[in-house]
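chain below, 143 aa
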Amino acid sequence: MLQNTSSDSGQVGAQKQHTEEATKSAGAASALTSATLESRVHDLLASSHTKKTPDFGTQSSPDTPLRGATDTVPSCVQRGTGRPEAPLAATHSTYEGQDAYLVILPHPTDADRVSAYVISASCVTATPPAPGKVLLTHSYRRD
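prediction:
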């Protein structure tokens, strides 16, 4: 009977490893890069126009856009932008292998544009607290 249990444990372990590998590959496919940033910004803005608040009872994933109040991103990430206004949209993702947030704010001087900030999420666990490090920033036309 002990052999059967260890055989089951091996199957469970193999299934867990497969699930972890699938999750990693899915995360890699959706990771931010300087080449994909513009399309992610436009996708987030488009989805924020069609759906103003998240549905109740739905699970969030790391790539689920966050919208709404100023608490949509950790305060250290918001401070990393150097800007006080609430994000138009934001998402938790990875950038160059680092845990990061994409934060989209109105452009400070041009209403037809937005500013996109990729901010390291390492500030969330930093001691002492510090603003998030800007990994990438760019402005794009607002569609």
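Strands lie at 89-95, 98-106, 113-120, 134-141. The first strand starts at residue 89 and ends at 95.
thats it, cya
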